[in-house]
Amino acid sequence: MQTLIILCLVACSVLISGQQHLPVVPSSSIQYTSDPGLCNVNRDYIRDYRSATYDFCLFSLRPVAVRSNFNFVYSPISIWTIVAAIAEGADPLTQQKLFQLLHLPPHDPCLRYAFYQLATSRAIPSNEVNIRNNRILLINEGTTLNPTWHDIVVKNSLLDVVTAPIKYNSVATANEIKRIMSARLPTLDLSGNSVLLDTIDYNGLWTTAFADAVIERAPFYSPQGEVLGSVDMMRVRRRARMGYIKAVNAKVLELSVGSDERYRMIFGVVIGNADIKPVVAAVTSETVFQVIDSLRESAVPIDVAIPRMVISSEIDVRVILKDLGITEIFTDPAATRYISDPPAFPSSFLQRTTFVLNSTGLYTPPQEPDIYNAPTGLDLALGRDFIADRPFLFGLFDVETYTCIMAAAYTSPTYI
Fold this sequence. Notes:
alpha+beta; globular; 11 helices; Alpha-1-antitrypsin, domain 1; 29% helix; Antithrombin, Chain I, domain 2; Serpin-Z10-like; 30% strand; eight-stranded mixed sheet; 416 residues
């Protein structure tokens, strides 16, 4: 009972602060790598970083979408970061496979650390944008961590390590994990020496608010045009950044978040047939670059309508990684022998994500005269509005690197 109380207190403090780490006892199994503090990468690596994370986002997006029936939210960059932490302590063959999946350079630790610093500094909570991301390796009590691996993980803020009585009090440990993560976790498996836990929550203020007075119950349609149910539609008339993606015949909309516009929300709907499944199958990292490059500010106000929603998902990341051909870290204890002694050998990898979209913003839309026939300055295929009243994709990006912090699909209306 005492150890369980310690687990609760330590884990809760980690979830609140994200800054506490375990003391490390030296281990005989050490894989030496460069000290991140000694690195100095003298080239522009932002595009390489974006390509690496976009590729992983799209690789993981497809199995996540299929297994969630195309109604989900998750954080690909958070999963990418945790897998990178495991890769840094994996045996050579597993490490090579993981680095390949993550598009990380196996022989350039300094460039990897530069990528890590970018990835872990994207989601920064503020008074206006509340993003809380916690990445935890919960490992069995009595396990000795490899100090070299732990040093890399700590200096690059990849994840926190917390101990728990997994082997001798698994039931109580499981209940405490569910409480800490605020999740049901039906697939939680404690048969190994550790579990990987990931939570991310978003609730932010738009830079320009939607008008509360015009939120209305509106129909939500299937790709075939049938009414699936209804949603609370947030509406605003304003100038907005939009783009047309010819390869998937889709229109995209970008809305800024926060007073400094540090974050951007990008929405995408298919023109005509609104089925997003072919888009998920066809999109590539180059498509993401095209989306960002295509965005242009409209010359006149356009009509924007987005459903108000709270969407939450629990993703069994272990299953997603197995879909991507990654099995060793869950089936072979030796694959994680450079993390700890005995090996970390995780039996579960779970992510719980919650995304809140409401009408609240910092500023009201500027009053402009309605000039309905004036050119929008946008591609003619975009029309004069963006109405998300059928299945659509959306994601949260930071403006500095356009890292995809959270990705989602909305296909199930609030009211059925």
